[in-house]
Specification:
Elements lengths: L34 H8 L7 E5 L2 E4 L3 E2 L4 E3 L2 E3 L4 E2 L4 E3 L2 E3 L4 E4 L2 E3 L1 E3 L4 E4 L2 E3 L2 E2 L4 E2 L4 E2 L10 E4 L2 E4 L7 E3 L4 E2 L4 E2 L3 E3 L4 E2 L4 E2 L2 E2 L3 E3 L5 E3 L3
Parallel strand pairs: 2-5, 3-6, 4-7, 5-8, 6-9, 7-10, 8-11, 9-12, 10-13, 11-14, 13-16, 14-19, 15-20, 16-21, 19-22, 20-23, 21-24, 22-25, 23-26
Antiparallel strand pairs: 1-2, 17-18, 26-27
Amino acid sequence: MTQYLDFKDFFDMTKTDFGDIFDGVENPYDILPLIGDYVLKKGPELGEGYTQIKENVWVGEGTKIAENASITGPVIIGKNCEIRHNAFIRGKAVIGNNSVIGNSTEVKNSFLFDNVQAPHFNYVGDAVMGFKSHIGAGVILSNVRSIPGNVNIRIDGELINTGLRKFSAILGDHVEVGCNSVLNPGTIVGRESVIYPLSSARGVIPEKHILKNDGRKFKKRS
């Protein structure tokens, strides 16, 4: 497969303890089918600083988990995270250090770098979220097309078949997504970009750009 997207253009690989999942992949979304097996292999090797709290669930020291949060393995949750009230982590997930999974947020088959925040009523399915990326209340990372078939990405006019039936979004480091926005399947957001509240995002949003909720894109002022 031709390498259309270099994950190093989106992520600072020093901002995760689990960057080896990217070894040998071409596009950043290529890790999505690997997450479950990666956790099952990596979890037992974590050692000091991690505790296995239930079957196939490993949690780093300093992490706080609300009593009514629901977590199903295979999952690795890093150190000093907050898993808040009614959070639902339903398998095949890696959540980086100092991250927040908040009230009524659902996460599945996703990889989160350190310091990610999904704090209020979010859905994060089949996604990769970069360092210090943040999604506002009610943001949905939609992972399945309305019309059956694999998720496609259009880059420079070329339609690329990802080979994945479920794939929501790639969010680069320091991305901000405003409240109640929907990122449609196959959305790619470059580093330090901003998506306005109430937006319907799709396709590629280059790094350091602003997507307004009428679909217009502007380069951020330096």
